[in-house]
# Entry
Amino acid sequence: MSEPSESPSERSSWFGELWRSWPGRIGAALVGILVLAAVVSLVWTPYDPKQVEPRQKWLPVSWGHPFGTDGAGKDLLSQVLVGARTTLLVAVLTVVLAAVVGLTLGVLSAITPRLVGESLAYVIDVLIALPTLILALVFVAALGGSVWTVSLALGIGSGVVLARVVRAEVSRVLTQDYMITATASGSSTWRSIWRHILPNIASTVIVQLSLIAALAVLAEAALSFLGLTPVSTPSWGRMLESLQQTITVHPGALVFPGLAVVGATLGFNLLGDALRDAVDPRLRGRSATVSPVFSSVVDRVEDPAIAPVSGGGGT
Amino acid sequence: MRYVLRRLGLLLVAVVVASVVIFALLRLLPGDLARVIGGTQASPERIDAIRQELGLDRPLVRQYLDWAGGLLQGDFGRSALNGETVTGQLGTKLAITAPLVLASTILSVLVAVPLGIVAGARHRRADGIALSAVSQLGIAVPTFWAGLLLIIVFGVHWSVFPAQGFPRDGWDEPARAIESLVLPTITLALSQGAVLLRFVRSATLDVLHQDYIRTARAKGLTRSQALYRHGLRNASLPIISILGVQIASLIAGVVVIERVFNLPGVGQMLVRDIGARDLEKVQGTVLLLAVIVLVVGFLVDVAHRLVDPRLRVGG
# Structure
């Protein structure tokens, strides 16, 4: 992890490593199923997910309707497949935005002069105090609910958290011998960022992004469950919200859309954990699930035990 | 003591920054409050009148300062739609939300800390791995779905607890009020506990690899003796930090849970106001939540300082 650049062969061994562990295999499989479901739903679903069939309502699980039907006779499997699109879209948009926000803020706050960098880091700390879901609620209140609004809010919210991790990682890289050598040999700032800093923080960032994707899946489900996304957008959270109204009579219908959310979230989380083990064997067996971000604001105690994500060397 | 004062100063700055961010988000994003209140049929004159009445025609800085001035006097703003004040409703809302948050935090700590230590200390044994897997699964389960499942099992199937709602007379009917909070508390504690368990496990694993544990083993203590006498004190530090981080996700969780269980608390109020685009009131409520998170962060930092003598040396 300390070599400044990685060759393609190293990268492929990453995935080899990933496939060797059970969490890696399960994670990759679950994410694969999500992608497959989203893609397949574009061209084919067993039934039209919006087709109302009054005579087919509340059908139990069967070969014809593997997940059953809802109160309007709409096929639940078809709805889950179409919902996967929204979930995947929000996850991808959130991850891209979080990467842009997190890398920009994180690198800037680490390489700019101390006063600027410290102030920036401080603003990051304050923004972290705004829970991402609440931030999303504010965005929805101001802009109206849509896939874009939700992704924007989640991307910015988790991007700020990522910035904190990136800052710590960049600070670590800056103290390494190869960075000092690069600076001494006249490497420009941009060249240093591109050639030395980014490749060295890439593994940590990728792990974090995978976990952010999991967070986005959960948050999208929660927001649409709260009824804050448009009715027209198919979504697992929306399905659960409407099925909740008949929970006392038809509890079984809630099982599959819920399991879909669990599967997608679990997939990204396991993938993150396994990637982390693959890129840094020293951390094997430790949790990567949530990055601890709120250590002391004042003196930035970088206790490796508090910040396993940012420390890197603290086993 | 100097540390506490310095940290307190930074807390105040953080509150100001948070208020500016929230204000800016809600004002700079498009969406005209006067138009929302006036309705789509309102004449331009009517909309101008509403705008004047609400003070929306003032310059932005003036609007912010007026709002901030009100905050200093304990006025968190009022609804532009029906004139209800945030602080006026807060008492009755917090009487539901605060016990929910506190009880679930206590419950999650009581369950997750011992289990997390076991999962860490026995991380190669079947029980340790099983605990770890269960917590991984627990993190992936959306809070609202867990709540719905609990409603199905305990509220509908066995009818042990009320499935939804809060007694009309609130805490004047203490027995029924407590009963109606049981399932929401368990739901929140489950999702918080799953995250907490992973952190405790991770902290325990960290401690197990420290030199002082090896020394303690060398002088003849068994593994568990070494862990209990020397390890847990050290592991407690990151755990305290995590509790600070969790308050943010707990607040997000409470918003969703209040909707699932139909509890008239702060979260439900916030979602309803957002649906009505009552920005004035949303602004006050969100700031209040952010302040709670910041204050908890402050308290956690100070507690951290008190517990860890290593941090005290610097003054």
About this structure: Chain A has eleven helices and no strands. Confidence is low (pLDDT under 50) at residues 1-9, 285-315 of chain A. Residues 189-225 of chain A form the longest helix (37 residues). Residues 128 and 161 of chain A are 6 Å apart (CA to CA).
